[in-house]
Each structure stands twice: as structure tokens, then as C-alpha cells.
Amino acid sequence: MLIVISIPIFKCKEDKKIFFLRLHELPCLHSVITKGDLLHLTLHDNDSQLLDAKSKMDLLSEIQNITKIWGAHFTVSSL
């Protein structure tokens, strides 16, 4: 799954650190790549199988919570 997040404006270094720590706590996170003012998150499950519908919804809900705190926006580019 590919998630694209707009990079928020951080108040300080600690704020930025917490944001990225929260992202790295996401289950199934494979990589985070910065492209301009966007973050590209690649996610997958440990068994290389598709996440079930509930897991996807829980994951998207957590991403929504993180981005909302920092005033960022995200889109799902692929499932």
C-alpha cells in the first residue's frame, strides 16, 4: 500500500522527531521516502499478503490521527 502525506511545518526539532516516531510505529511500515514536500510511505504485512479490510481501516485511521495532529493531509495512492 502506498500512502502519500504532505509534510507539515514543525514547531521545533522535537515536534518533527515525534511526528516521524509516530509514523515509524505504524504496523507494516516498509519505507518512508521524501519527495519534495511529500512523504511516500510504503506499507505491507509481514507475510507479504494483503491486509484484511479491518486492518486496512485501522491503519488508515491511525494515519488520519497522526496527520490531523500536525495539520497534514494524506492520500492513498494504491491498496
Task: Give an overview of the whole structure.
The chain is α+β, with helices and mostly antiparallel strands. The protein has one domain: Alpha-Beta Plaits, CATH 3.30.70. The chain contains two helices and four strands. The protein has helices at residues 13-24, 53-69, and strands spanning 2-6, 29-35, 38-43, 74-78. Strand 2 (29-35) and strand 3 (38-43) form a beta hairpin. The longest helix is centred in the last third of the chain and has 17 residues, at 53-69.
Shape: globular
The number of distinct helices, counting runs of at least 4 residues, comes to 2
User: Segments where pLDDT lies below 50 for 5+ residues?
Assistant: none
- Classify the fold: give the CATH topology: Alpha-Beta Plaits
CATH level-1 class: Alpha Beta
Structural class: alpha+beta
Find the count of extended strands (DSSP E, 2+ residues): 4
Helix coverage percent of residues?
A: 25-40%
Average pLDDT over all residues: 89
The main sheet orders its strands as 2-3-1-4
Structural features:
globular; Alpha-Beta Plaits; four-stranded antiparallel sheet; 79 residues
